[in-house]
Amino acid sequence: MFNKNRRTNDMSGYNTITPEIIDQIKGVVAPNRVYTGEDINEDFSHDEMSIYGKRMPDAVVSPISTEEVAAVMKIAYDNNIVVTPRGAGTGLVGACVPIYGGIVMDMTKMNKIEGYDLDNFVVQVQPGVLLNDLAEDCVKQGLMYPPDPGEKFATLGGNVSTNAGGMRAVKYGATRDYVRAMTVVLPTGEVVKFGSTVSKTSSGYSLLNLMIGAEGTLGIITDLTLKVIPAPKEVISLVIPFETLDDCIATVPKFKFNHLDPQALEFMEKAIVQASERYIGRSVYPQVIDGVEAGAYLLVTFDGNSKEELDDVIEQASDIVFDNGAIDVLVADTPTKIKDAWAARSSFLEAIKAETNWKDGLELLDECDVVVPLNQIAPYVKYVYEVGEELGLRIESFGHAGDGNLHIYTIGDDKISVEEFEKKADEFFSKIYPKATEVGGLVSGEHAIGAGKLKYLAESVGQKQMDLMVGIKRVFDPKMILNPGKVCYKL
Amino acid sequence: MEILVLIKQVPDDSVEVTVNPSTGAPDLAEITPVVNAFDTYALEMAARFKEANGGTVTVASIGGDEVDTGLRNCLSVGADKAYLIKDDSFKDADSTAKAYILSQAIPKIEEANGAKFDMIFTGLEATDYAGGLTGPQMAEDLGLGCVTSVIAVDPADNGVTIKQETESGYNVVEAATPVVLTVTKPDYDPRYPTMKTKRAARKMTIARVEGLDLDAAKTAPATKVVKQYAPPKRQAGVKLTGDDINEITMKAIGMMADAKAI
Ligand SMILES: Cc1cc2nc3c(=O)[nH]c(=O)nc-3n(C[C@H](O)[C@H](O)[C@H](O)COP(=O)(O)OP(=O)(O)OC[C@H]3O[C@@H](n4cnc5c(N)ncnc54)[C@H](O)[C@@H]3O)c2cc1C
User: Fold this and answer.
1) Is pLDDT larger for residue A122 or for residue A418?
2) ipTM of the complex in this document
3) A337-381 per-position pLDDT tens digit
4) Nearest-angstrom CA–CA distance, A39 and A20
């Protein structure tokens, strides 16, 4: 099981784990929370996008305190062993996959909500708390934790490390806007605290903000202080069918222009809505209205302090969308109707996954989550479909229209081999990423870089910026042992 | 056909309800009233019937002015007319008393509408106290036939053909009209109001049915609530452990059989 010459065979220069090192780890973390060999669950070899590579770790450690994380990290540092932090493993870019083996630091057992400070509107949590658990707990306190990425069973540590966005980002911002402070174990095993409860700072470089979106490459987050807000009293959602995607997307900036501030503003095309409704077995989105066929939809949510206020808002919103070619406006004004209207949207990825093919243990599915200026959404999406057609690839797309963030999926059919699919997907992305950069966009809006997007990030931002990022990583992680192969640093 | 759908406004059942420990009664003050879910199925079934076969759909409810909200919502999802049956003395009415009040109000509504109803829909039950009594008792008071747990209705030569849900499937029932149907969840969901239908509904009037000549003895509640209390917390289950999965499974089955659960 262990490689005696202490060198991995992938020429990475890292040491492999020996039984002696495992014993050392079991000296600082209860042995029943240290796993090796057969005891390691296969899940630890991948995240939700297996196409970016799979690899089993040599050991999995499930710490329950900052001290344990620090002690394990120190052992890894002293022995030059790779460590990959991992939350719930729901990532979409392979970021938590231990591509160079070594230790996976499983943060899910650090899952306590430690308490609220209602004078300062913050909550303190361990990083393994699931988004769903915090969201539900906040509701009980009359509060809201606004970041709302689609996957509710991800950890908050994972959300912070990928700077997850989600449906409500258009009004409330992404995870970054809700992180006040954190405790971090550095790759050397030292423990530091970044940020504080306070709401503003001009106190030097923001190391706190460097950690957000760092995908576990700079340090391991062991405690978080997050901002919460009083929960809005009322919400209402509108499902708005349009004949064409162009009309649908052209309407998006009109809301803000008219002083309306939706909490969520999503666009979706007919095909994916139908696939998703098939998948969940429910039909909310009208396909033909007064003889006109819907080609695309907006799903919009407004929040406010009273029903009357929202009645006014939806009146104004309806005037705007009808002026811009909406065929109809469906009103979801009860919790059940709102839930049902969002059910189809929330199931897009699962619906796509239900129709994908698997070959050699890999799912023939690849995605990109570029973000482009609002006025570029429609022409960009058109371009993407043209490239897909040219290459004979099935493409599905949807996105957070309010912030120009698109989710574009390519799906391999049952005839294509893994190699062929990878080659075609690569060709596809080699066209659409540069195009996004060309129109003023960026590689990732919210899913992050991981291993899967590193190459495209380098092409988009250029060598100088990549060098700066690698330089920053080296300051935090002199031996480059923490989650190598991700974001900016490739062996 | 002329269809009447009777609706009740109830506390939103998608919200968790807590019981007030001192009174034993549920705390409902903060919960938004909504149209009872089964009544929304009944209205959707009526609206679809009308769209396929012609006719009109009228909704009615017993209650105070606050029920206008629910009735107006109905006008935006398929109802053509709405009536509020209003009298301060109805506040304490139980299912039996409400059935009586409805049986007296319906002829007045028919008079105002200028046509008799062919079908009267209620929900199978209201999600607040889940009695399921009002529809059948009202049918009795009106001297009409009643079919419960209806999931579909279609016109037939001498009335209507009805699908009635049972525990193992469904019965097909033929009924002469007028008839009372209590409706359960069909295999579709109620439609969403649209801005166009909401705007139209806002302009419609909700007529009042007032000053009914009622027998005071029959509007008084026939039942009395003796005590309200929260259901006891469920006991923790029994955990069986061991190495042989078959053995443990058989043991679990044995325990369930002993408890007459299977
Ligand atoms: C169905 C689905 C829908 C989604 N929808 C959205 C969406 O709408 N918007 C959006 O923004 N995202 C979305 N996502 C992505 C989602 O936000 C991420 O998967 C999630 O944030 C990752 O959390 P995780 O706990 O699973 O982390 P993992 O996948 O386990 O890890 C992700 C990264 O975080 C690092 N990490 C985890 N914990 C720590 C820690 N304590 N310290 C340091 N580093 C750590 C890992 O090393 C890795 O680099 C979706 C994902 C799925 C599967």
Assistant:
1) A122
2) 0.78
3) 999 999 999 888 888 888 888 888 888 899 999 999 988 988 999
4) 18
Encoded tokens for A474: 């080296």
CA distance B42 to B5: 7
Helix (H, G, I), strand (E, B) or coil at A113: strand
Q: Are A369 and A445 spatial neighbours (Cβ–Cβ below 8 Å)?
A: yes
Is residue A164 within 8 Å of residue A154, measured between CB atoms?
A: yes
pLDDT digits (tens, 9 = 90+) for A84-105: 999 999 999 999 999 999 999 9
Largest CA distance in chain A: 74
Q: Which of B14, B192, B198 sits opposite A335 (nearest CB)?
A: B14
Give the 3-state secondary structure of residue B80.
Answer: coil
* Candidate from B77-81, B86-90, B124-128, B245-249 with smallest mean pLDDT: B86-90
Cα angle value A29/A34/A112 (rounded, 5°): 65
Total domains in the fold of chain B: 1
Question: Looking at the domain assignment, is residue B255 inside a domain?
Answer: no
Write down the pTM of the prediction: 0.84
CATH of the domain at B153: 3.40.50.620
Which of residues 336 through 395 in chain A touch B, CB cutoff 8 A? Answer: 336-337, 339-341
CATH 3.30.465.10 is the classification of domain A113-230: yes
pLDDT one-digit tens code per residue, B103-145: 999 999 999 999 999 999 999 999 888 889 999 999 999 999 9
CA–CA dist A446, A161 (Å, integer): 11
Q: What residues does each domain of chain A span?
A: 19-108, 113-230, 234-350, 356-472
Residue B12: list chain A partners with CB under 8 A.
334-335
Assign a CATH topology to domain A356-472. Answer: Alpha-Beta Plaits (3.30.70)
Determine the structural domain holding residue B88 and report its residue range. 2-219
Report if residue B61 sits inside a domain.
Answer: yes
**A19-108: what CATH class?**
alpha beta
Nearest CA in chain A to B11: A334
Contact A178, A227 (CB under 8 A): yes
Same fold, A234-350 and A356-472: yes
A443-465 pLDDT per residue, tens: 999 999 999 999 999 999 999 99
